[in-house]
Amino acid sequence: MAYRANQQLREDIWDYRYPSAPAPLPDEEEKVVSFARQPAKGPGTTALSLMQQATEMFEGIENQARETEARAQSLCKSATERLRLAEKQRDASERSRRDLINDFNARIEEMAKAMQRAEKRIVSAEDHAIAAEFRAQAAEAQLHKANRELAAIEDMIRKRLV
Question: Residue 16 and residue 18: Cα distance in Å, rounded?
Answer without folding.
Answer: 6
